[in-house]
Design a protein that fits this description.
Radius of gyration: 29 Å
Strand order of the largest sheet: 1-5-6-4-2-3
Structural class: mainly alpha
Strand content: 5-15%
Shape: globular
Distance between the termini: 87 Å
Number of strands: 6
Order of helices and strands: HHHHHHHHHHHHHHHHHHHHHEHEHEEEHE
Largest sheet: 6 strands, mixed
Number of helices: 24
Oligomer: single chain
């Protein structure tokens, strides 16, 4: 019987890990790199093309990402997929944390947390973004879990990698450290309060001999962990001693983090709270219930549950307050609070797991609740598109319909409780709402990570987003094939400069960036800003505009039409366009006069 339970647990863990793998790696390279992503990927590409110790390359404050990605570029070539590979792999590694900690947190809580971390929209979205935030989070807290389980060498390696992942690691470690300090303070206070009453109990009598032996055994493992930490930091931080300036980037990341405390605010703090409410409502509600249950019934929890709850609670509060107070805040800083959030949610959800199979009535009630939830969402969508006459406002119609559906759900729960039992009604309601919440969670996950990856309509995206990069690339390939016979051999001059554009043109050997176009210069392809004044080339070139950068087109936390944004992510977007100018003689029948320095087509 025990073997069957363990096998079932293993199957579910494998299912969760497979789900996390698919969510993080499916179409990983399909979305174009944003400016922030491309800036880090270009540094990795620059290292790839460098000459080692003689290369005067400036390494940014994320040496782990730069050097590890550069290794992939050297082996397989540069691509969007490989630029995001290490963050995606780190996001997958994070899912293993509850498995590593299942002895400390309990098997049911670990299993729930594995699924939560696997499908969380915020964690999945940041895992699919090039850069160090997800690597810093995953390496740091997985290293902590390995350290607690006395796997010190692995913990030392991951700790060294985490330290090289940029300024965000300091942000996360400070929040985690504050949370742990508060936890130990409350633990010591509770122990000192219980000591007088239990001083005569042998269970509470100190055993110095065993403690001393434990301390002696800890010294070699601590030394091994520190050695692994030092070797990893030195080896990875210098890219096998080829780029010693990588260690300087480690200190630069600390300086950059401190500068963030005096910089102007980049993101409204309410946007961070809105991202939690919109993308993590299921975990957030369960965490709040867990906190409330702990406040009013502390004595009903086991020592393990209280310890886990306190660690998660203080970590969550410290991380959230730090993220809101930090002037250089970004929505991606919230990844540091999602791990303790799912820990609290898993701890609470454990109480809803049935000890016996769910009854047929509870299952039918859960199905009815799920149908009502679907009707609620459908009404929310349809009433927003409804046109009414007279003085009747669509807002009141929507409110009346939604309140009616909620009232019907409450009525069904009451009737089931009266006809069968309160436990049957509670089980059906809980599982029905859980099913609806999971459907919403998966929909939001798919929207943020697949449909609108890195786009301004999603709060977890990185602004500015990149627009029609793939269309620009395919147009250039078509023009090059027609005129040179090779896919990317055509000459290009760009007077527009941005990291994302440089990344798209990285495979064009004849592409050059210039501040301005010379008077007599007529390159085959010219890229300019839409606002640029180019009357001199209008007769010589044919142009096509492309959306390149995109920003949120609203000033508040949410767009003005909130329901449209919530249901379809319809929102105003501000865009910046560029123009691709192709010389006229590249097209059939096109000419370029001799006075303009080019050939004349007959």
């Amino acid at each position: 019987m025990k073997s069957s339970r363990i096998n079932t647990e293993q199957v579910l863990i494998c299912l969760a890990i497979t789900l996390a793998l698919v969510v993080r790696f499916l179409n990983l390279g399909s979305a174009p790199l944003s400016d922030s992503e491309a800036s880090w990927a270009l540094q990795a590409l620059e290292v790839t093309h460098g000459k080692g110790l003689n290369s005067q390359i400036t390494i940014g404050p994320q040496p782990a990402y730069i050097f590890m990605t550069s290794l992939l570029f050297e082996l397989f070539g540069a691509s969007n997929f490989l630029a995001r590979f290490w963050p995606a792999l780190a996001g997958l590694l994070l899912v293993f944390l509850p498995v590593i900690m299942r002895k400390q947190i309990g098997r049911p809580v670990a299993l729930i947390a594995v699924f939560g971390l696997a499908i969380d929209p915020g964690l999945a979205t940041v895992s699919r973004q090039a850069g160090g935030p997800m690597m810093a989070l995953a390496f740091s807290i997985v290293a902590l879990g390995l350290w607690i389980n006395r796997r010190t060498i692995s913990a030392g390696i991951l700790s060294g990698l985490a330290l090289l992942c940029g300024p965000t690691v300091f942000h996360g470690i400070i929040g985690l450290g504050i949370g742990l300090l508060f936890f130990y303070y409350f633990q010591r206070r509770d122990q000192s309060a219980r000591t007088p009453a239990n001083s005569g109990d042998p269970k509470f009598t100190a055993q110095p001999a065993e403690d001393n032996q434990g301390d002696v055994r800890t010294i070699p493992t601590l030394r091994n962990g520190l050695i692994a930490f030092g070797i990893t930091t030195l080896f990875v931080g210098t890219y096998s001693f080829r780029f010693p300036q990588g260690l300087a980037a480690l200190f630069q990341s600390l300086v950059e983090y401190l500068n963030g405390w005096i910089a102007a605010a980049n993101t409204n703090p309410l946007t961070l709270l809105a991202a939690l409410v919109i993308y993590q409502p299921f975990a957030l509600v369960l965490a709040l219930i867990a906190i409330g249950r702990w406040l009013f019934s502390q004595n009903k929890r086991t020592v393990r549950e209280n310890a886990l709850l306190l660690v998660s609670l203080f970590w969550l509060l410290a991380g959230l307050i730090l993220a809101l107070a930090y002037p250089g805040r970004q929505v991606t800083d919230l990844v540091w609070v999602l791990a303790p959030l799912w820990s609290l949610a898993a701890l609470e959800f454990e109480h809803y797991l049935p000890e016996v199979p769910v009854s047929l009535v509870s299952g039918l009630h859960a199905g009815l609740i799920l149908i009502l939830a679907s009707l609620f969402w459908n009404s929310l969508v349809s009433t927003d598109q409804m046109a009414t006459g007279g003085n009747i406002s669509p807002v009141w119609i929507r409110a009346a319909l939604l309140l009616g559906i909620l009232a019907l759900g409450v009525l069904t729960a009451v009737l089931v409780a009266m006809g069968w039992s309160g436990e049957t009604s509670q089980q059906g309601t809980a599982w029905g709402l859980t099913g609806a919440a999971l459907v919403y969670l998966l929909a939001v996950l798919w929207s943020a990570s697949q449909l609108r990856a890195n786009q301004p309509a999603e709060l977890w995206g990185t602004s500015p987003g990149t627009g029609q990069a793939d269309l620009l690339d395919s147009t250039l390939i078509d023009l090059s094939n027609r005129n040179t016979g090779l896919a990317r051999d055509i000459g290009i001059v760009s007077v527009v400069d941005s990291p994302s554009l440089r990344w798209v043109l990285k495979d064009y050997p004849n592409a050059h960036f210039s501040a301005a176009l010379a008077a007599e210069e007529t390159p085959p392809i010219l890229l300019t800003a839409l606002e640029g004044d180019v009357p001199s080339i209008a007769a010589t070139y044919r142009g096509q505009d492309f959306v390149w950068r995109t920003w949120p087109g609203w000033t508040g936390v949410f767009p003005e039409k909130f329901i449209e944004w919530l249901t379809f992510r319809k929102a105003p977007v501000t865009s910046e366009k560029i123009i691709l100018w192709a010389r006229s003689d590249l097209f059939p029948g096109g000419t370029l006069s001799a006075e303009q320095g080019g050939p004349v087509n007959p």
